[in-house]
Design goal:
The protein is of the alpha/beta class and 233 residues long. The protein is built from six helices and eleven strands. Keywords: Transferase.
Length: 233
């Protein structure tokens, strides 16, 4: 257990490392840990995440600070700076179908170096990759992902590192937690006792460092509302 996110990441951040980061849009982002990465000034990072947050929020902070060299993600999403850096040739982007990206993380965490999938065959994401035929269908080989450091956000944890995620914040976090050589987790709630074994999503064996996240307003990527019934225009 560490006193702060800064302490938890103090000796694991260096230039050129690969970071796997949980979250989907702005849901389930390990924001305390991301801010420490930004403040550390490390450069030439490869970031593996479903997307790169939005401008000025989540992983968008690292793009603003020009700390990222390459991104492995499923889409550019709502981040205009991400798209601009990619189009300007400042940022290398490796696109992966969302399910394939998830499975690459899971495979890396399970010690599986590669697997075959039909997703992406005949598209640019399959170019230059080995192909094979199984039962009359063509598949493309995808490599498992093993990151130097994994950053995850949990809702509840115990001091043994067992993690529980809340609702959609579960997203990529469990997969990210397994595929890092060092997994650093932040949690909103730290229990005095232990998480009920039936509720554990990420077992503590995968978590190397744990810190309590500071309270903050949870950002909403896209807020869609409608007028209340009977309300005046």
């Amino acid at each position: 257990m560490y006193e702060s996110a800064t302490e938890a990441l103090r000796d694991v951040l260096t230039d050129g490392i690969t970071l796997a980061v949980g979250g989907f849009g702005l849901s389930g982002n390990p924001n305390d840990l991301i801010e420490v990465v930004r403040d550390s000034g490390v450069r030439e990072l490869t970031v593996v995440s479903n997307n790169m947050g939005v401008d000025g929020k989540g992983l968008g902070l690292l793009l603003e600070n020009r700390q990222v060299r390459k991104v492995i993600a499923s889409y550019v999403g709502e981040n205009k700076l991400f798209a601009q850096q990619y189009l300007d040739g400042e940022l290398e982007v490796e696109f992966a179908p969302q399910g394939t990206l998830a499975e690459r993380m899971r495979a890396g965490g399970a010690g599986i170096p590669a697997f075959y999938t039909a997703t992406g065959v005949g598209t640019p994401v399959a170019e230059g990759k080995p192909h094979a035929e199984f039962d009359g269908r063509t598949y493309v080989q995808e490599r498992g992902i093993v990151a130097d450091v994994a950053l995850v956000h949990a809702h509840t944890a115990d001091r043994a590192g067992n993690l529980v995620y809340r609702k959609t914040s579960r997203n990529f976090n469990p997969l990210v937690a397994t595929c890092g050589r060092v997994c650093v987790a932040e949690t909103e709630v730290l229990l005095d006792g232990y998480v009920d074994p039936d509720l554990v999503i990420t077992p503590g064996v995968f978590v190397d460092r744990l810190v309590t996240a500071r309270e903050r307003v949870k950002e909403i990527e896209k807020l869609t509302v409608r007028p209340r019934a009977g309300a005046e225009a």
